[in-house]
Amino acid sequence: MATDVNMFSIMKILVALKRTIDYNVRVQIRDDGSGVVTDGIKHSINPFDEIALEQAIRWQDDGQVDEVVAVTIGSEPATEQLKTAAAFGCGRVIHIAAEDDVQPPAAARVISAVAKAENADMVLMGKQAIDDDCGQTGPMTAAQLGWPQASFASAIELTATNARVTRELDSGLETLDVDLPALITADLRLAEPRYLRLPDIMRGKKQAIEHRHIDEFDVADAPALELERVAAPPPRTGGQRVANTDALIAELETRQLL
Questions:
Q1: Which domains does the chain carry?
Q2: Dihedral (C-alpha) 36, 107, 206, 90: value to the nearest 10 degrees?
Q3: Which of 37, 111, 142, 145 could bridge across to 183 with cysteines, CB 3.0–4.6 Å?
Q4: Please, are residues 62 and 5 in contact by the beta-carbon 8 Å criterion?
């Protein structure tokens, strides 16, 4: 049964975005193993965050959400992704300036502080970022806020007071009802991002960006994790052909895999 969107309206959704290397780019490791090459490389909104953004804008277009605010943490180039968010339809975009890489615990404290200041009814973000694949920022942010959370969302139905979330798990689908305010992380099939038209892109470029600095927030100076080295995985070895099933079983037993 279709929901009567005129019966309720969620006031505000905060969408957290991360600037990452574009998923189409072949990542190269620096010669000294200190990280990956980022200079001169195309960057975009983290794909899972873009899916979360698309879902929030759809609700806004349908009248189920009054306002969508996008926030990102990073250096000055991260404002490019905020302009993309504005092109999607965000009325406000917030840049939290940070010169160094921000790890999940610090990002969670910043995002939770912004959510409280904005009096958001929901925080929506991707289930993970494709650069580190940690998947930690969402749950940590929910913990900072003391809000219920639902991760890996492939479908969300809104009411005035809660959200029914379908989650994609290895074992199948799970449905949760979470009271609002809540934090939800988006999986791949939640919403397909729209194709931006040129007028939308030009409007996004003109959107005013609200600037703040990470020093305004209660974030520890020292990073929680220290990167030692980045290396490519070892090359795969060639396969081994066996004559029959008995030979396969014998080989697996030799390798103590059975």
A1: 5-254 (3.40.50.620)
A2: 120
A3: 142
A4: yes
